[in-house]
From TrEMBL:
Transmembrane segments: none
Species assigned in the record: Gonium pectorale (Green alga)
Glutaredoxin domain mapped to chain residues: 18-81
Binding site for [2Fe-2S] cluster: C31
Name of this protein: Glutaredoxin
Family of this protein: Belongs to the glutaredoxin family. Monothiol subfamily.
Residues given in the record as glutathione binding sites: K23, R60, F72, C85, D86
SUPFAM superfamilies: Thioredoxin-like
Length: 107
């Protein structure tokens, strides 16, 4: 990964409390997993930044290296990699996600 791309990703993650790297956009997710993550965050009513990894091949491949996570979506909360769709579903169902988001939004 180029230093420039790493700096761009670092900046987006550092400057936004909740960032989701998805296939498509929040208005038009282009895979079921991305749609699920967007729907969970919408139901919870939290503000989040969505990044369409399909619009930039360099970003798509770079994110896999950056996070050491091979699939999308990838969710970052408060500057930290949180996980993918399955982790979001489990955390949402257990109530852990609500706690994590409250901490992030109130920090």
């Amino acid at each position: 990964m180029s230093p420039e791309l790493k700096a761009e990703i670092d900046s987006v993650i550092a400057n936004n409390k909740i960032v989701v790297f998805i296939k498509g956009t929040r208005q038009f997710p282009q895979c079921g997993f991305s749609n699920t993550v967007v729907q969970i965050l919408n139901v919870m009513g939290v503000p989040f930044t969505d990044i369409n990894i399909l619009s930039d091949d360099r970003l798509r491949s770079g994110m896999k290296e950056y996070s050491q996570w091979p699939t999308f979506p990838q969710i970052y909360i408060n500057g930290e990699f949180y996980g993918g769709c399955d982790i979001m579903i489990e955390a949402y169902q257990s109530g852990e996600l609500k706690e994590q988001l409250e901490i992030a939004l109130n920090s």
